[in-house]
Amino acid sequence: MDNTAESRATAAHSATARAAAAPAAAQHDIDVEGFRRALSADLSGTVSFGAGARALYTADASNYRHVPLAVAVPRTTDDIIAAVAACRTYGVPITPRGGGTSIAGNSIGPGLVIDASRHLTGIDHLDPAARTARVQPGVILDDLRAAAAPHGLTFGPDPSTHSRCTLGGMIGNNACGAHSVAWGTTADNVESLDVLLYDGTRMTVGATSAEEFDRLAALPTPEGRIHAALRDLTATYMADLRTGMPDFSRRVSGYALDRLLPEHGGHIARALTGTEGSCVTVLGATVRLVDAPPARALVVLGYPDAPQAADAVPELLGHGPLTVEGLNDRLVAALDRPGARSGVALPQGDAWLMVEMGGADPEEAAAAGRTLLRGLSGAARPLEAAVVTDPAHMRALWRIREEGAGLTSRTPAGTEAWSGFEDAAVPPDRLGAYLREFDALMRRHGRDGVAYGHFGEGCIHIRIDFEFGDPAGRRGFRAFMEEAADLVAAHGGSVSGEHGDGQARSELLPRMYGERLCRAFGEFKAIWDPENRMNPGTIVDPRPLDADLRVPAALSAPLTVLAYPEDRGDFARALRRCSGVGKCRRSEGPGVMCPSYMVTREEKDSTRGRARMLFEMVNGEVITDGWRSEEVRDSLDLCLSCKGCRSDCPVNVDMAAYKAEFLHHHYRGRIRPASHYSMGWLPLWARLAALAPAEANRLGGARYLGDALKRLGGVAPQRAIPEFSRTTFTRWFRRRARASPGNTVPGLAPVGTDGVRRGAVVLWPDTFGDHLTPEVPVAAVRVLEAAGFRVVLPRGPVCCGLTWVSTGQLGVARTVMRRTLRALASAVAAGVPVVGLEPSCTAALRTDLVELVPGEQSERVAASVHTLAGFLRAYAPDWEPPHVEAAAIGQVHCHQHAVIGFDADRELMRRAGIDGEVLDSGCCGLAGNFGFEAEHYDVSTAVGERVLLPAVRAAAPDTLVLADGFSCRTQIEHHTGRPTLHLAQVLAGGLDRKREGRPRP
């Protein structure tokens, strides 16, 4: 090494050594007040030093935890420049952050976290002819792909987090995804970068010829200094870069210094891609777009095990696939856990390869798949295979693969599994041998995990049941990581094949690259960041891989009320379900989760953000006032308790339950919000109003008195107080029963037995149907009787307790539910099923009952509860519903989506001749008491206006609008004026027309 290079290496080591303790000491050596004033004065975006914001950004999807000094959410590029200037003045480290889905710990840090994902989301220019796009760092990948799609183009790299990862984050990690087989990594698709150095230098970098390098290096500017240093670095290490870097596409670990070589175009932008925020801040990028195949087919091949599937990969790659993905039976089994409902058929085998082929049309794509199958021989021949062309089937198969990171955060045995050695990669022709040796390594260490991944590029994802809770477990973690890194290096691989090094793997880089190349990495960083203030501890001078772990915390708050049976009764363990993969941060897309985030785009309003806040409350370092925390309360404030996360989250986080738990403790012994007394106690007020419904309606509808009542009850002035029916359903029912006495079921109120062929069924008289819309349960009685059942009701007033649960009044809810159990005990013991008409009440009997009053009796009741459609499918599959012959659009209630599913309803609608479009609209926005509360009206409306309300307005006048949920019907009618029906009402109307022999008008 010459003297210049030696000096550079010494400077690099000195610079990084000065900051070696920065993560631990940074916040103690900074003029925090001065820094706060500088940021607040210069940024138009938001800046927060508060406990709540800092708690939100302590973690990403990795095993690590760092408490930041502050968080900035810039609105403009100038905001980023100003934030970096303030950091430079006060010596504050910077961690750039995109979607926060890093599994390596490279999007958290001790200084200023700069989150570009909320506002810097613009696509500044898209040039279809040049096939390029110029993007801001916060652009969501799916948004870029949607903008390119009308031109027949796409952005090639597509990690499984495509619905929420940002281009800036992808550039930071050199993200890849399933289709890198065809289109390469992010680095392969970056043309140029607009970057900002910590010293304030701003420059645009891209491919640079040798002549241009010399010209720029001669400039007496910071840009000239950087080009000169890069030219010298490349010359010094040229032989090492040509022979010492693993030569395969998924070498993501370390710095891609070989991109600086002349044969690679001297591409500075691609060398900076994958530096994980440790060198520069990316202000913008020009990226390459590729042709999107008009049609695709998925070839699914079954093999006896994953290593044998891996052995087939080299032959498959010769057929030009778009992707080759691998999964095994244990990953598929994870989809059979509660709430997952996969229903995916696979060929024979215990491991599968999903090989996607493209074509000009579906037939050409399918033909390519069939050609591939005919050409396979030897080890590549599967036990069984299928060519899948049905879009719904392909989406279901992709869902297994894309949700792997969440699905595998618990092992099949139920123990917690963690990232760490999450995404190592080896050349594809070594993958089979590597997997066999890796399995042996797992057995030697007594570890378990579910492996899957990008087999076509030799990249394996796995979460492992490391034990972080004690020193011995952490020592075992380190020993495993070191041995696994050596194994990867022995196969010519990379300890990271996708997610970057971060804190998880930076310490392992010498095992892969050796000391000389690691020294080159240090010199490269020093060129850009000589003070080591950009994401310190990442790649160069790394933090130990077993430090700063999110060690499971013991809950110091009072014992919880809910049982958390799937988490061994441990609230902290329930919170750790959230692995941080961020599916709840989608701004668009199918499913329900997370309606508040879709509207606000704020981290605190995502399921992940709320889980992080609650975890930090349990941890007690940042959030120090436990259940009384106002920061946690504020984060939960916009949670609609929709339960969408219970099914849409890959690990079934149930934020509605966590919110109820928190509110119970937070307001225990304190005055609650007015809405908790008004809407939380709705069942009681409804029963009182039933004594004089006309007077209650008159008072509620009076201009001044009604407004005063709404203010007193915390009700939004824009909402009308629902009118109580002149008579309740239960009164109508019992009068009818007395007029037509029949057989009884012990403890239940009877009705006549005319036409009974199938036995008794309990119809659950929920508060909404009983007091506000009795026409719904009346219609259900007629439908059930037409199907041959004898309808009975529980004796006395009953309630599922939901309004008390959702407002955190769990003591009252438990009392109510115990009364419900007594009322249903005899019927359930006699084997009589229960039908619920209000989805939220039905779901409460299915889930909340077991959580609040655990025991065998609750489980029997929960198992006995059905929706109307589900009951008819299970107990009267041969019943022919009336033929309605109507067009309809339908809104699925969130709780039904999350707990029960809608398949039976779709089937019943089809059999009844209802040409129904079931909207994929997510939550309606009303969500019980949420949308009635004065402070939530705007968010409630915005949630509904995303998809549901525009769809209803656009529907033809003669199209039926169906919604089984009282909240859904109320929201639709309030905002559109369209009458909205329960499915029972539509079927009952069909019975009338059938009896009268007339068609639907």
TrEMBL record:
Cofactor: FAD
GO-annotated molecular function: D-lactate dehydrogenase (cytochrome) activity; D-lactate dehydrogenase (NAD+) activity; FAD binding
GO biological process, one term: lactate catabolic process
Domain spans labelled FAD-binding PCMH-type: 64-292
Pfam families assigned: CCG (PF02754), FAD-oxidase_C (PF02913), FAD_binding_4 (PF01565), Fer4_8 (PF13183)
UniProt entry keywords in alphabetical sequence: FAD, Flavoprotein, Oxidoreductase
The protein's name: FAD/FMN-containing dehydrogenase/Fe-S oxidoreductase
Taxonomic source organism: Nocardiopsis mwathae
